[in-house]
Structures are given as structure tokens and as C-alpha cells.
Amino acid sequence: MRADRLVAVLLLMQARGRVTAAELAAELEVSVATARRDLEALSAAGVPVYPQPGRGGGWSLVGGARTDLSGLTAAEAQALFLLVGPATAVSSEAKAALRKLVRALPRTFRADAEAAAEATMIDPTRWGERDRPRPATVDLLQTAVVRRRKVRLTYAGRAGERTERLVDPWGLIDKDDVWYLLAGTDQGRRTFRVDRIIQAEPTDRPADRPDDLVLANAWQEVVDEVERRRSRTWATVLVEERFVPILRDQFGRHSHADGDPEQGRVRVRLAAPTPLDIARHLAGWGSMIEVVEPPSVQDELTRIGTELVARYTGGR
To answer: What is the DSSP code (8-state) at residue 242?
Structure first.
């Protein structure tokens, strides 16, 4: 018997108290014979279910026995379905699972749970951009993570060079619609962009995973390191206060307003990997922004300005 169907059977019996094989078959979309075999298999496995023959009979949990699978409060049920609901738009499996969960909830929770599932949708495509399809490799890697099996990767680096690696997959992260694989290697923890994985071949070898690994904590360490590399150069600029939100949108966490406005302008600290990166962001502002420091950013802006003047006034 499939494990997911076993869970569904227990949830339904807990929610309804008593079910017939025909009712179970209709709910789980299987034959009556299959539903009856599932119930008998549960009983044979030691789960406290028993049949009551005759008119009005069915299968029940002995003594009203309960599992911990659906012991949700109304607020917890709503929170769960608010979270899971949007996933049904991109996954038929999620939609089927949600439908079964709704049926398994106590009747008093069902209406609110269904409403919560339909209350939110997620459109990951930014304005003006095309939708990014989810890489097919994600499903293969997810299976390897769950089954804890090593994976052999053919990977293309930033310069296009290809390497082969045998990795221990620890988890997958979807950040701003870009997928990353966090994995263990013979050189320690590494992060791989899934869209740069040319080929992924699962193996039968067990994967090593640190006993104390918490994926969210490990990923936060990766994020912190990347952000440190992205903020190696800091610049101080003066700009009108009304433009500060635009700078925050451009530079994200690497933008900090510093002190009170001076003569209508605000001092803002900005960061990027190099002086050129900062200059490229600021060049389009023209005279609306003044770079106070460092000289390296001022020099890059001067160079960009000189190049533009030469290109667009050279023939006049």
C-alpha cells in the first residue's frame, strides 16, 4: 500500500469516525476492492482499525484512536492552506494533495480552509520579463535530497568551463526565481546554480549529510557571504530626499541614509563589488546626484562621461 494513501485513510477515519470501503474509494479515487485491501492491510499492520458488518456499518478506529496528523486548530488549518494554496497553480500533485487534505479536515474547518487555499496566488514573473520555467533538473535533485543519494553533476562555471563533481545534495533553494543546490563536496559546502547544471545523474551511493544541518541556517550563511562580496566598495552620495527610495530599490540592503537632510539633500551610503559597478548605477542620474567619496568612483564616472561625450559629439 502506498504511504500517502495510508496517511489519507487515517486522516479520513479520524475526521469522520467511521467510513465504508465505498466512501473511501470515492474519496481516494481508487476501486472499492483497493480501498478494502488498504483497510485490511492497516489492520494487519497493527493500526487499531476494525470493521462493523451489517446495515450502517463500516470501518472505525478502535476506541476513537487518533493520530497527530490532523490535530490542527482552525487558525493552524487556515495558515497551512494559505501557504500551500498558491503551489497548486504549478503542481498537479500539490492540487491533488490539497484536495485530499481538505476532505480529511473536520467539517467545521473545511469552508475556511478552501477559502484560504484560494485567497492568494503567486506570479513570480517581474513586470516586463518573460516567465522563467522551472528547470526540469529540480525534480531530479529534490528526489536525490529526499532519498539521500549522491549525484554526479556536469557543471558549467561562470566562464563556461565544464567540470564533473560527485556531490551530496543537502537541499534546494528558490531565490528570486533562480534555483540553487546546496551540497557537500570533497572541498566542503558548495552552492550550485541549477541552470548551470548541464547534466545530473543520481547514484545508488548514500549521501553524507551533517546531523546538525539546518538548511535555512546554512543558506543564510551563503547569503551573508555573497552580500559581503557584493559590498566591497562603499560610496557616499548626496541626493534629494525624495530620491532615496529609488536608490534603496537599486542597491537593496547596500543603501543606508546617513543623518538628517542638508539643504534639501540626504547623505546616503551605497555599496557594490567595485567602483565601476557603483558608477554604472549612478551615471544615469547626471547632476541629480553628487558623489562625495571615494575618488575611485568619481574617476569611473569621469571616464564614463568622457566616453559618452566623445561618442555623441565627436562628429559634430
So the answer is: G
What whole-number distance in Å separates Cα of residue 142 and Cα of residue 77?
26
Q: What is the pLDDT of residues 155-184, one digit of tens each?
A: 998 888 899 999 999 999 988 778 999 999
Contact assessment for residue 59 and residue 49, using Cβ atoms and an 8 Å cutoff: yes
Question: Cα–Cα distances in Å, from 106 out to 63, 72, 83, 109?
Answer: 18, 9, 19, 6
Mean per-residue pLDDT for 36-65? 72
Q: What's the CA gap between 273 and 258, in Å, rounded?
A: 21
Distances (CA, A) of 161 to 103, 156, 269: 51, 5, 37
How far apart (Å, rounded) are the C-alpha atoms in residues 187 and 193? 17
From CA 288, how far away is CA 266, in angstroms rounded?
12
Q: What is the pLDDT of residues 207-244, one digit of tens each?
A: 999 988 888 899 999 999 999 888 999 999 999 989 99
Joined together, the cell numbers standing for residue 265 give 539633500
User: Which grid coordinates belong to 216?
Assistant: 535555512
Kindly state the greatest CA–CA separation across the chain.
100
SS (H, E, C) 123-191: CCCCCCCCCCCCCCHHHHHHHHHHHCEEEEEEEECCCCCEEEEEEEEEEEEEECCEEEEEEEECCEEEE
Question: Cα(281)–Cα(248) distance, rounded to whole angstroms?
Answer: 12
Query: What does the H/E/C string look like for 42-95?
Result: HHHCCCCEEEECCCCCEEEEHHHCCCCCCCCCHHHHHHHHHHHHHHHHCCHHHH
